[in-house]
Design goal:
heterodimer; A: mainly alpha; two-stranded antiparallel sheet; 27 helices; 2 strands; 71% helix; B: mainly alpha; 3 helices
């Protein structure tokens, strides 16, 4: 009887979810409420978690609460510590939640809400959450081994080395594109610059407090930091309103780019307790707080979506980024549906904390479902804006010109409505001089969030505060990825460089630290600077490159997962990872091919380079470019971008080929299926269990 | 409603103890190193072994956290 009721309940969830999907897919013309998106999402998550993750947990891994976890066997009170699953869940989520799922879906809203919604939900259930869960469970069974180590041990040294180089390449592109998002959000905005700039001295203050005043009182310092963040918000407003101070903090995007490079360098050479650790504590709080606040805000307001289900830009003529729905919707959303980076976390700290094996399901699969919910909220926040406003904020100046009138004209030609004074009023309401062409996703997400939050609290007069609060939240988020990423990149560079010159690898020798940090910052700084001088705003070329890189890492993770499944004798279930793997391989390869070879100069790096070279050869300065020297630099950058995309595509092929070879020999029986799992060790039941 | 603080046989933790537990959970979620747990572990599993000082432990934990790619995400 109870069983029957449970089946009826699940059937109901399935019916409601399918109904919401159908309603959204069939809606044409009329406004739909965000409630439908939330319903479709929640039903998908429930079904996927209850049935699919349970299937993976029992059929593939046979997760066993009586099997000792690495945390129990290797407990050292430091890295390996058995920890309550809710705590691990919170920690894991704080580590995987980054700016990616906020920015990607915002940009992908150019196609309308439907493509983004479908991929975020289907992609996470069958791809992203599967990847995180499979890697976590595999790592737990192997004493918490890292992804790179598993690639080497399971697939082979070639795949292992390729994965290592690929991770370094991905870090470079990732940091560059995220830095560009911050630069675009803060350019010409004294309020934003002051508020975000103040977060650095706040972190230093917290660091000093933790070191000298009240050592190790982490929560005290964080509480102080949170209060100071609010103060910084008001200081920013005061500075922006002051006619003498405001111009001093109105910075061009070029100067901001250089400042951010300097910040990354400092974060890499300064001791971690001074800057990185306090920032991280602050950011974790703000991150979790805002994510829950946004969820609550959306649930309370249930705003109607202004964006249509599909826009005409599915044909590839969109201004936000170039390229058709396939493959660029998938490349753009990236982390919201499946993120290769999570495989590093799932094979990093998390597997060393699990108290019981079955916890991996909730933390690996469930954690990613929550991350996908964040992506859905970003999508909703982008789609509550009217399409006219969305495109005015996200389209580069090359497409809409630099005045409200030219923007309104361009947007009218695309078939959307924008009154010139509408965007100016909105800019004034959020306390900015202009919102035109603030590409990168952060400003439009902030406008969307401010719209939702001010509906709940404060009304229209609070828009400006909410907008800058959202910008501060995003920048805090991004800068914590940027600074920690630069430091990690420095270590990876040192680790590789020591094979060429031994002293370069000494992690405590100052000349080596400074040199390797400078090299790593220069590597991402190059791409950042390229994005800043790009007449199309930079996001256009860099975000797809980042998406390709991120999905490449997911390919590596799914190859590792498939190899693990096949080698442990579960070949008949290998489709669980092969399915998303095949899809990702198709998406990344076709996106990389298009970005390199497309004959459309808006899309193909090489076509763009040759168009500019022709113009330069004739002595013509290309449209939107300031000088011939800049044009030559852009031509060079296009070729570098093409080379980087080719490198990522080649890495995918190498790892796929190496893995396929390994699978084939195991399936054919020429190689024995030897599991590398640590042998079973049973738990002794303890009183109170 | 009044909860008897020392119900016989069922010691209910005082508010302070409960608050400390909550704070500890928050600290571990944001990833702050837990020195007390480390000391407790050393005492129970490796009695007699040298135990790092709080400063040393904190420095060592933070250094290791920020040198791995697994600690941060996009």
């Amino acid at each position: 009887m109870g069983k029957l009721l449970s089946w009826i309940g699940w059937l109901l969830v399935a019916v409601v979810g399918t109904g919401a999907f159908a309603w959204l897919a069939l809606s044409r013309g009329e406004q739909v409420s965000a409630a439908w998106l939330v319903t479709a999402a929640v039903c998908t998550y429930l079904i996927a978690y209850r049935f699919y993750s349970r299937f993976i947990a029992s059929k593939i891994f046979a997760l066993d609460a009586n099997r000792k976890t690495p945390a129990e066997r290797l407990n050292d009170g430091r890295d390996y510590v058995p920890t309550n699953r809710w705590v691990v869940f919170g920690h894991h989520f704080a580590a995987i939640a980054g700016p990616g799922p906020l920015v990607g879906p915002t940009l992908a809203a150019q196609f309308g809400f439907l493509p983004g919604m479908i991929w975020i939900l289907v992609g996470v259930a069958l791809g992203g959450a599967v990847q995180d869960f499979v890697i976590l469970a595999s790592s737990v069974r192997r004493n918490g081994k890292s992804l790179g180590q598993m690639a080497k041990d399971e697939i082979g040294p070639v795949a292992g080395f390729t994965a290592l180089i690929a991770v370094l390449g991905i870090m470079i592109v990732l940091i560059a594109v995220l830095a560009l998002v911050v630069v675009n959000a803060l350019g010409e905005s004294p309020w934003g610059v002051v508020t975000v700039g103040l977060t650095i001295p706040i972190a230093l203050l917290m660091g000093g407090y933790l070191k000298w005043i009240r050592p190790h009182r982490v929560l005290e310092a964080t509480a102080m930091g949170l209060v100071l963040l609010i103060v910084a918000l008001y200081v920013g407003r005061a500075v922006a309103a002051n006619p003498e101070l405001a111009p001093m903090f109105t910075l061009s995007r070029k100067s901001l780019a250089i400042l951010i490079m300097g910040y990354g360098f400092l974060a890499s050479v300064l001791p971690v307790w001074l800057l990185l650790a306090p920032r991280d504590y602050l950011s974790a709080f703000v991150k979790l707080g805002v994510v829950f606040a946004l969820a609550l805000g959306i649930l309370v307001v249930l705003p109607p979506l202004q964006m249509p289900a599909l826009t005409r830009f599915v044909d590839g003529t969109g201004p936000v980024f170039a390229g058709k729905l396939f493959p660029f919707a998938f490349i753009t959303i990236a982390c919201g549906a499946i993120s290769g980076f999570h495989a590093l976390v799932s094979s990093g700290t998390t597997p060393k904390l699990l108290e019981r094996e079955p916890d991996a399901r909730m933390i690996g699969y469930g954690g990613m479902l929550l991350e996908s919910m964040v992506a859905m909220m970003a999508l909703i926040a982008a789609c509550v804006l009217s399409p006219g406003v969305f495109f005015a904020i996200n389209a580069p100046a090359g497409a809409i010109g630099t005045t409200a009138a030219s923007a309104a004209e361009a947007i009218r030609n695309w078939g959307f409505v924008l009154q010139p004074d509408e965007i100016q009023t909105l800019a004034r309401n959020v306390g900015e001089a202009s919102l035109l062409s603030r590409t990168g996703g952060a400003p439009s997400l902030a406008v969307g969030m401010a719209h939702i939050f001010s509906n709940v609290l404060g009304g229209p007069t609070a828009m400006a505060l909410w907008y800058h609060f959202a910008i501060m939240f995003e920048a805090l988020f991004i800068l914590t990825t940027l600074d920690a990423g630069t430091r990690v990149g420095r270590f990876m560079l040192q680790d590789l460089g020591k094979h060429l010159w031994e002293p370069f690898g000494r992690t405590a020798w100052y000349p080596a630290i400074v040199l390797s940090s400078a090299i790593f910052v220069a590597l991402w700084g190059h791409f950042l600077y390229q994005g800043v001088i790009d007449p199309l705003g930079g996001i256009n070329s860099l975000w797809p490159l980042f998406g390709i890189a991120n999905q490449l890492l997911a390919t590596v993770a799914l190859c590792v997962g498939t190899t693990v499944i096949i080698k442990t004798g579960k070949q008949r279930y290998a489709w669980v990872t092969l399915l998303p793997l095949a899809w990702l391989a198709i998406v990344t390869m076709s996106a990389a091919y298009t970005k390199i070879f497309s004959s459309d100069p808006r899309l193909g790096f090489l076509a763009h380079a040759s168009l500019f070279s022709q113009q330069v050869a004739q002595g013509v300065t290309p449209k939107g470019v300031k000088s011939l020297a800049d044009a030559s630099r852009i031509i060079w950058n296009d070729r570098v971008d093409a080379a980087v995309a080719a490198f990522f595509a080649l890495s995918v092929l190498v790892i796929l080929a190496d893995s396929a070879k390994e699978w084939w020999s195991v399936v054919r029986g020429t190689k024995p299926a030897v599991s590398t799992e640590v042998p079973f060790e049973g738990r002794v039941a303890v009183a109170g269990d | 409603m009044q909860i008897p603080l020392s119900a016989i046989g069922h010691p209910i933790p005082s508010l302070l103890v409960r608050l400390q537990r909550v704070l500890r959970v928050i600290r571990s979620i944001i990833g702050a190193p837990d020195y007390e747990r480390y000391v407790a572990h050393m005492e129970s599993h490796h009695p007699g072994c040298a135990v790092m000082s709080r400063d040393e432990f904190m420095r060592q934990r933070l250094e290791s956290r920020y040198s791995r790619p697994g600690s941060r995400c996009c």
